[in-house]
Amino acid sequence: MPTPETQHLDMRGFRLPYRRAGAGPTVLFLHGAGGSSGWTPWHDALSQHVDLIAPEHPGWDSAETPDWLDHTTDLAFFYLDVMEALDLRNVHLVGHSLGGWTAAEVAIRNTSRLASLTLLCAVGLHVDGMLAADGFLLQPEERVKSLVHAKQHQEMMLQRAMDPDLLDLNLKNSQIAAKLLWQPRNYNPQLRKWLHRVDVPTLLLWGANDQVAPPAIADAYEQLIPNTKKVVLDECGHIPPMEQTQAFLQTLTGFVKENAA
Amino acid sequence: MKFFNFHLMPYAAADLDAIEKNGSAWVTFSNSHYDPEKGAELYHNYLDELEYAEELGFDGVCLNEHHQTAYGMMPVPGLLAGALARSLKKIKLAVLGRALPLVSNPLTIAEEYAMLDNLTRGRFIAGFVRGIGAEYHAMGVNPGFSHERFHEAHDLIMQAWTRPGPFEFVGKHYHMRYVNPWPRPYQDPHPPIWVPSQGSADTIKWAAKMGYTYCQTLSPIAVVAGFFQMYRDAAEAAGKPATNDQLAWSNSIYIAETDEKALREAKPHLEALSNRFLKMPIEMLLPPGYTSVESMKRIRAAKVVGKVQTAEDLVNSGVVLVGSPNTVREKLEEYQELAGFNTSLTKTQFGTMPSSQARTNAAAIAEEILPYFRAKASTKAAAE
What we know:
The complex is a heterodimer. Chain A is of the alpha/beta class. Chain A has one domain (7-258): Alpha/Beta hydrolase fold, catalytic domain (Rossmann fold), CATH 3.40.50.1820. In chain A, 37% of the residues lie in helices and 18% in strands. Chain A has helices at 41-46, 72-85, 98-109, 140-147, 151-161, 164-181, 215-224, 240-243, 245-258, and strands spanning 7-11, 14-21, 26-30, 51-55, 91-96, 114-120, 202-207, 228-233. Chain A has an eight-stranded mixed β-sheet with strand order 1-2-4-3-5-6-7-8, sandwiched between helices. Chain B has one domain (2-383): TIM Barrel (Alpha-Beta Barrel). Chain B starts with a strand and ends with a helix. The interface between A and B is medium-sized, with 19 and 20 residues.
């Protein structure tokens, strides 16, 4: 399938870039702090099963950085607006890392357009005694090691990180990422108080070796959200779509089908 | 030219190999390496050195603020300024400066500076900085809001000093129902504002527009000259032409009988400062949001961060002045003409230099360098 064209949604003066392809249940995928990665083979594979909507967050990749974006909760309200603007219904909201935190913030506010929630290696909660990798201080090699588990993936990521265009993009992405993640580091202390409000089936999909969002965070979400299913993938760090593509796709599409209206 | 004695108060007893092994003396260098006995000794030596600076005829002394580092032991510079406010009787006292974005309530800085201005009966100089990038790691403050918080904190402090209180201040980051700090500054309307920077174009242009004295930190003199010209151009464009009294160059000076002797004696301490105390990875120095994407690209392309510099490199590029009295006089005169500044912020102790050596150096500078530039300044004033 060819890469879908980037479309733009006008949101009160801000233009949201997004790609959309496939048919079936609607999956809205919120990417992590590293950026959208564009439309990759796993996006393509996922869109064979679902109607996949993959936006580039405000401030990331080709999107402009709006003045109103100061906090992850701003991003959550924004995506509530987006779902309304596109009149999406029975949405399977999937969020990776920072996108997972954002998805959780969406779900504690309003689940009326959601059919399910998937938190993929999500941050957003702090767990006592857990010390996650500091992606802002680690130097490139160590940073990559903290992100992905297998050596060949680490080498691939390191090599890709040298690409001058990607270096520039990472500079841009890290600016907005820092704004949302720096302090408190990767979490909102208020979030745990309201996770009982999440009244849709929730999949917690994690890498067993995740050092950025250690599996202890999955355990915490499991305790706080009423209806969860937890799947932890072996030999997998913080980026399951890259590291365990098949297991990621199977688990996610299976869960979406189970919970399709 | 005015000479201020600038002290960084390094933890000179630091194990330099341990710093090298850790990769930096900042943030992650464990404070288990700090020995309070040695630290206490250093604090008293350093304060003694600054008191000695008055005796020697310096025009003022400067302190600054850094956190969680062996590079400087002054997380709370106001405390040391308080001690000096009582012991210094004539000369200026400058804190260069407090890092405004790091505090959750900038009124505490307005209060602290006003107290120091009262204690010194108006001999206080108020420095405003953003703090270097490492501070944002150390203090848990978001670098993405650094610029916003700096400007908002500045506005709040200036209003607190100049508007009769109480009044309300509502910003994006700071919300104060009552702004009414006691005491008010001693100087009318407020202490002089000095703005030190590593050379951020935004900061230079802003300082020029505001008419604040700009202080350039550790840089090769040719680069300093460019920054000072940027300041003068920006001041001109703002319709407030600047004089060289508004420009200060921060340097280190070391003199001995001959150039060779001076270099030999200064070398280990300069290199400890440059390659150990100052060293940090770019991720620590420039966290995302601290500086713009465009500046980051320029800095990345220049590949200067983390480069090892020998004492000879520092001398040759004009970051520091090391040599015989004659050499230092000539160089400083040449640099003053090249860059255009009337204030030298001079470190007489740096790196691991012991106090006895620092005091000998300060005394020699006072004897050999200060009078020459003072005479020159008064001749120039008489001619005008």
